[in-house]
Amino acid sequence: MNICGIICEYNPFHNGHKYLIDQIRKHQPDTKMVVCMSGNFVQRGEFAVYDKYARAKAAILNGIDLVIELPVHFSCCTAERFAFGGIYLLNALGCIDTLCFGSESGNIKDLALISSALSDQHTDSAVRQYLNDGMTYAAAREKAVKDTVGDIGDLMHNPNDILGIEYIKALNKLNSRITPCTFQRKGASHDSCQTKNSIASASYIRQLILSGDDTKNLYIPKNTVGIYSRPEHQEEQKIKTDFAMLYRLKTMNKKDFERLPDMSEGLENRLYKAVQNGNSVEEIINLAKCKRYTMSRIRRAVFHSFIGLTKNDLTDFPEYIKILDFNQNGTEILRLAKQTRTLPIVTRSSDIRKCPENAKQQFALEYRCDSLYNLISR
């Protein structure tokens, strides 16, 4: 039995995701598929547009056999940590043969070369030097890599190529037997508002959902339309969320900001000052943003403050494998995984009682965040 792993957000599941699954089926006809999917909070520091169980169900209806959850302290973080958490969980199942992902380049060799360069100590030294010269971290990292691999380092401009590089780096770090495989993305590019052949970017589809525009249904599989039902008054929900975020930010002191993940280089001071002067979440983010601190980094920091995530919550590894949904093929995978897995498998909440203390602590964090998601999403 060949088993393929995918790391995803499916925020929401759309025709581009279905295209990747169809391509995998075309090239690996007998394969079974497992996805490691973000839960209720996603990498850019936002609520998922639909809850994790609805998104998992959409995946199962469209060719996925088993869905496991990427916990919040990996899903709502940098690309490096997001990728490592997903790879670690797929590897922990002990039965995944290949990792498949879409990328702008579709070139696994080039992505592997960049990944190797990033893992080299000389690259680390070069990055530190370029940072001292005043470059942003992203620019310093790209220049250091291009010093080694040349112009193929330009692939680090592409969001899905970046994730692919991090996937390969994580596989190498874990000495995993999983083989990476990539397919070139078709249709709309990441975050684009353009559409092509019934494929649109997830960000554009989210805009349609939040505005109540039913043309979103053109870009998602027909069998998911009924799953993706949400209460009306999306604008009211956004106002409620922004108010809750603003309240949390305004009641934090400097020490609270220092405890947030990914706080360094004076970011905690800049964010604290922005909070004192800003009167809305977006205004605070714009005040804190600068050449050194990207919008996505600031947005994640604001979101971490809202859900109460601290540096102490960022453990090195996930401690359990949470099952979100599965079909008959997924049952077979789980039967095999029970013999090969290196982490406890949690199918229902009561399973956590049998897990080690570290797993219980991570589960408690996830439960707290899910409760917040459900409260805001009512």
Assign an overall shape. Answer: globular
Order of helices and strands: EHEEEHEHHEHHHHEEEHHHHHHEHEH
Mean pLDDT: 91
Bin the helical content. Answer: 40-55%
Number of strands: 11
Question: Helices and strands: which structural class?
Answer: alpha/beta
Termini Cα gap = 42 Å
pLDDT < 50 stretches: none
The order of strands across the largest sheet is 7-6-1-2-5-10-11
Q: Report the radius of gyration as a whole number of Å.
A: 20 Å
Largest sheet: 7 strands, mixed
Helix count, per DSSP? 16
Bin the strand percentage: 5-15%
User: Quaternary status of these chains?
Assistant: single chain
What this model shows, in words?
- The protein has 378 residues and is an alpha/beta fold.
- It has a domain of 80 residues.
- 50% of the residues lie in helices and 12% in strands.
- It is built from 16 helices and 11 strands.
- Strands 7-6-1-2-5-10-11 form a 7-stranded mixed sheet, with helices on both faces.
- Strand 8 and strand 9 form a beta hairpin.
- Helix 6 packs across helix 7, helix 10 packs across helix 14 and helix 13 packs across helix 14.
- It starts with a strand and ends with a helix.
- The model has no long low-confidence stretch (mean pLDDT 91).
